[in-house]
Amino acid sequence: MARFRRVDLLAAHQCARRLWLQSRPGEGERAGPRADDRDMVRVAARRRFPGGVAVDQRAAVAERVAQTWALLERPEVPAIFDATMVYADVVVRCAILARVAGGFVVVEAKSANSVGEAHELDVAASAWVAERAGVPIVGRQLLHLDGNYVRGAELDEQALFSVVNVPAHDFAAAAAKLAALDVCEPEIAVGLHCTRPRECPWRDHCAPRKDTPTSVHRLPRGGKLAQDLAGLGIDDVRDIPRDVRLNPSQQHAVWALLHDREYIGQGLAPALRNVRWPLRFLDFEACQPAVPRWPETSPFQQVPTQWSMHVEHADGRVEHLEFLHDTDSDPREPFVRSLVEACGSEGSIVVYSGYEANTLRGLRDRIPEAWADLEGLVGRIWDLLPAVRDHYYHPALDGSFSIKAVLPAVCPHLDYRDLRIADGMTAAAAWLRMIGPRTPPEERAVTRADLLAYCARDTLAMLEVRKALVARSGG
């Protein structure tokens, strides 16, 4: 069986050290787009080529290659899906090999709204291997999702994609690196090639961070700063020259790291008081299907699916409200109706970042009759994040102001580690699985409970963080 795959050829093209690291047992390409998105995009792309025949991916490589050649020799087959080719010990699987006058066009479909050099090299690598294996390649095309496409009652696979013609590329040098792969790790220093055409997942291996308590990597937005300071031989905040400009958050972080305790600015207390009771701590979750699932949606459009709200009254009383759409239908209208009713007409709506306000504005065109109510909600939003970012820092934040970093730093008794769903991407994928027609009722019930628990933790986190910071700042 051949030793290498397309990802190895592309790794060799980028950096011999990346190739060596990627070829180690247990290593390989890191996770890309969600599997459900990739599957939906693949199915939609294949529908653009009616009559196409798929190669059986359950078969061994040699059998898949044999199937591919058998289909190539059948002129009545207009397209071959998952065509498998081998050249110079590199196995490639062409998503679509479309038959045209004079030969074949290699077509790859990407789960993205735009394409870059990395995507184009994927197509070019498949075409390079296929051509040298003996297939007459006359074109290379990249399909990507058209962000301007709006689904009607039915999905239009032709309009869903934009088509980019990709130039040929020579991978002979990369193939030679594959053949010469040594048992010893190449000594190649970090540089621009570490991010072009792809961000290398082994960059920290080649240039390990010095995670000391006062490392510059622990500053907010410290990546670019750390890179600049590294050129000066500086990796500790104690050695940052006075003429290096730091933003206020970075200045607060330096103070906290040097003193090994939290920084509380004088502006924190007044910032936290700038609210109206009752406080409605609000969080949304949403899905972003690559292929639009409902009418009047576009690729990767944010579609809100649930909300959680902890309501804190001036007398200290707390209540919790929540909504989760749990059927395979457009969730936007029931989401809006339930939210408007729950928010009432009084009190600040406390969020953490601009996500909720942007989501509500994005619903204006879909539900224009509700915009007056939604605009009223947007006008009541108070964002906790700027108050924290501008006036507070804890060494445990490690450069991050996300609520998941702030919560355990400010409230050590509370975090996300007990939850089965603990981040938004996982929640979105779980929601799509939950509403799927093949999901068993038992799994659906468990997922529903997990989604509710996760969203509720976000709003409880905001409530507890604000309460703790009010107490610490004397507010």
Brief overview:
Helix 1 packs across helix 7 and helix 16 crosses helix 18. The protein has three domains: 176 residues, Lambda Exonuclease, Chain A, CATH 3.90.320; 51 residues; 204 residues, Ribonuclease H-like superfamily/Ribonuclease H (Nucleotidyltransferase, domain 5, 2-Layer Sandwich). The protein is 40% helix and 17% strand.
Explain this structure:
The protein is α/β, with parallel strands linked by helices and 475 residues long. It has three domains: 4-179, Lambda Exonuclease, Chain A; 209-259; 270-473, Nucleotidyltransferase, domain 5 (2-Layer Sandwich), CATH 3.30.420. 40% of the residues lie in helices and 17% in strands. It is built from 18 helices and 14 strands. Strands 1, 2, 3, 4, 5, 6 and 7 form a seven-stranded mixed sheet that branches. A five-stranded mixed sheet has the order 11-10-9-12-13, with helices on both faces. The longest helix is centred in the C-terminal third of the chain and has 33 residues, at 441-473. The chain is globular, with a radius of gyration of 27 Å. The N and C termini lie far apart (69 Å).
